[in-house]
């Protein structure tokens, strides 16, 4: 049985994790109040270098693995520059400025791409943030 579904895996299982750098491939602009994203239970996802993910913002305070998110803003499609793991709670930075933290993942468009949900204070689209093509996005790692 899936250890995530049984709530056996906790963030303290992850002792050290490298940064996941990427570049903006597409800047998005749009807001929805009724998106219905169903965040999957796992708190971590592994990605290969060159994988394209879609970053989506939410200001829903309940956004977490296993939750459903309605209110969103589209940020960007990002091409990851190297392989690694993204973990719920990881900070997301754009050109060195933290814009939010990973809340979870939605598989609506798999296997084409995975939606990666970013918990933010205020829902802002990529265009509203001022993102540009090739801007640097870093999902931070850590060492305990």
Descriptive account of the structure:
The chain is globular, with a radius of gyration of 14 Å. It contains one helix and 14 strands. The N and C termini lie far apart (29 Å). 3% of the residues lie in helices and 46% in strands. The protein has one domain. The strands form four sheets. A seven-stranded mixed barrel has the order 2-8-6-12-11-10-13. Strands 1-14 form a two-stranded antiparallel sheet. The chain is mainly beta and 144 residues long.
Query: N-to-C terminal Cα separation, in Å?
Result: 29 Å
Radius of gyration: 14 Å
Class computed from helices, strands and strand pairing = mainly beta
Could you name the ranges where pLDDT drops below 50 across 5 or more consecutive residues? none
Strand neighbour order, sheet with most strands? 2-8-6-12-11-10-13
Main beta-sheet strand count, sense and barrel state: 7 strands, mixed, barrel
Task: Count structural domains.
Answer: 1
Strand content: over 45%
Residues in helix, %: under 10%
Strand-and-helix sequence, N→C? Answer: EEEEEEEEEEEEHEE
Number of strands: 14
Taking all residues together, what is the mean pLDDT? 93
Tally the helices: what do you get? 1
- Net shape: globular
